[in-house]
Amino acid sequence: MRVAIAAALMAMAGTPLAAQDAGSEGTAQLPPVEDQIGAGGRPVGANWSRSPVKAQHGMAATAHPLATQVALDILKAGGSAVDAAIAANAALGLMEPTGNGIGGDLFAIVWDPATQQLHGINGSGRSPRGQTLAQLREKLGDADALPAYGPLPITVPGTVDAWFTLHERFGKLPMATNLAPAVRYAREGHPVAPVIAMYLDRSLRAYSAREDQFDFTNARKVWFADGSAPEAGEIFRNPDLANTLETIGREGRDAFYDGPLTDIMVGYLQRQGSAFTKADFAAHESTWVEPACASYRDGFELCELPPNSQGFAALQMVNILKNVDLAQWERGSPEAMHYLTEAKRIAYEDVARFYADPDFAAFPMELLSDEYGRERFALIDPARANTQLAPGEPKLEGEGDTTYMTVVDGNGMMVSLIQSNYRGMGGGLVPDGLGFMFQDRGELYSLDPEHPNAYAPGKRPFQTIIPAFVKKDGAPYMTLGLMGGGMQPQGHVQVLVNIVDYGMNLQEAGDAARFNHDGGPQPTETLAGPFADPMGTLYVEPGIPAATVERLRAMGHKVEVVDNGIMFGGYQAIARDPETGVLTGATEMRKDGQAAGY
């Protein structure tokens, strides 16, 4: 029955424009679902999935096969899982610029076998320290939100500092060695992967339609020099990025934050009208944070990072869902889908109200208690979608482009790492001759001065990117991540439910059809509302049975079926057997990725 349950979950058709991010225009349309050929057969497991990867000495799972191989090469050269993760992340900034790069932020969870502890790092950047909310509003004119393009949504890029902070504690190889593979690929070239080529084309269309709003000149030179996006299989080079990474590897973290590269970045940003100064970059630092975990059932615990990330939303969902036995229904049933969706909607009421930079607004930890989870579970009507939700008493979205990757080494160090420029490739601005794009993460500030997530000088915005970690019976068990804006917490929970409640293996748990509830109150809106989309829309992949879709609509959900996989994330995971040390890895069909080990 497990195969039948999981098979009820598979894949979907034509993303509505309203649900797409700013870079979504021009998505190729697939044939009608009824005209598409189905999955083949398999001797074991679900016929719509493939085998998870097994290895013993080390493993990596990333969104690009070449980046996975870079990580394995570093492990084989004696590097730790952190060394390998940094090397792969640097390569992904080159190979998957549509999802990440050194112009963005980074979060990671590391299991350290030496101390038997989980460590979290918040590598997110801050707003200009010399620009007030009033000054920002003056620049925005009549706009009621920050734009996705240009200088205003930029925050200090946190990735490079996070690399060095992680490396100082857990690295074994020199940083120049870790960055060398990305430098070589940037200089010599690599063939563009198919899904990434599609995203590059989408990005070019989106940026070109708004080119009058920001300086796109440098970005064109780097990625679109001949007027078109690189095609799948085309050899792409980025010598500017090669030089930048080589400088960072040779001169260290300060080359980026208080050195020659800083001068170039700040000079360029100030010409674009930004308030950033060199002192803003020099003052940046990553923060070690403590992950929190929520028990689910059968000894499984989900662990996430605290705000300003949205990780605790997944824990709130877990604390709600542990009050019902989802396994009594099939995974593709309307009942299971309804409880999962309502749990997400309830948790995100609190996300939009309470999640912000903890240096400016303390997070009410009682939101993670079992008692609070029971109280919030009581809001779920088993028969209908609740139209009267509100945040609890003691609220994010937007489709973002991100990369998630994970590495585990032979000593049992486990790295769960996520990195992003936020929407699209970023805000469109590329500093002169450096080969990377600045993030547009500041789009997620609220302009309501009473909101915990309100813009303020030197403040980190609400963050969508979250790595995850899973414990089993108190021991380290699995790294887990899933890319894409507000899809991430609900994706983490869906994968966990697939494994724990429905017996899927790691590969099936990621390949199975997902939902993405988008909309509802946002952390960028005013506290008092009115909210643009209070109920939101439940987007599902076509593997969700048609009868389930119709039943959910009858229950009051607004449901749309989408078949291109774009808004449903990109999953990677590695599990480690605590007895044998055997590693099991998975990636998925929605990306170009690869899980591999040795």
TrEMBL record:
<dbReference type="InterPro" id="IPR043137">
    <property type="entry name" value="GGT_ssub_C"/>
</dbReference>
<dbReference type="InterPro" id="IPR052896">
    <property type="entry name" value="GGT-like_enzyme"/>
</dbReference>
<dbReference type="Pfam" id="PF01019">
    <property type="entry name" value="G_glu_transpept"/>
</dbReference>
<feature type="signal peptide">
    <location>
        <begin position="1"/>
        <end position="18"/>
    </location>
</feature>
<dbReference type="InterPro" id="IPR029055">
    <property type="entry name" value="Ntn_hydrolases_N"/>
</dbReference>
<dbReference type="InterPro" id="IPR043138">
    <property type="entry name" value="GGT_lsub"/>
</dbReference>
<keyword id="KW-0732">Signal</keyword>
<protein>
    <submittedName>
        <fullName>Gamma-glutamyltransferase family protein</fullName>
    </submittedName>
</protein>
